[in-house]
Amino acid sequence: MNCKTLFALIATLCAGSAMAAGQGWYAGVAAGQAQTHFTGQEQLGYGADGKVYDYSAAQKVYAGYGINQTFSAELSLFNLGHSRFSGTVLGAPAQDRFGAKGLSLAGVATLPLNDKLALFGKLGAAAVTTNYTCVVACDPLHNNDHHGIYANYGVGARYALTPALSARVEYERFDGMKYETGIGASNWRGHFRSDTDFLSLGLQYGF
What we know:
By secondary structure, the protein is mainly beta. It has 1 helix and 10 strands, in the order H-E-E-E-E-E-E-E-E-E-E.
């Protein structure tokens, strides 16, 4: 391959990148389904009939800035919905609910495949508020919120519908989120952790 051919190939790739990613501001909305994978829930004392309802509706809004044709910084406001435990505790019906929402900041790297379709990956951190709510058979448990910062990463694809509007599908994960509950006025705390997957479909608009 001679130099002219190599330069022509690089120019073509850069042109494709400019059309697929572009510099400047963008914003979007997305909705889909979150699945929460819990550990530590045995502390709640459910019997053999205990069930975990770990799927829930989830949504987010986001905005970002294309630093160059490949890299962007993106801020997201998300709500991962609520998961439930239900069953019996000491022979009595019981139910508990867990939710998570927060704000994430991530770097996004884009790989254009052509002038319409691009793949991307993201890596960042999320400031999350998790909440535990006792629904049935609560005494002496009490509700509690917990605040923490956790890893957030994902992959996805974007397809240009018009020069400004794109459809976006994305899978992302929030690692090791912590939930906390307590008993009465004591210092005892039950800790539950989850890795939560979020699969979404949305629209993105470039300004």
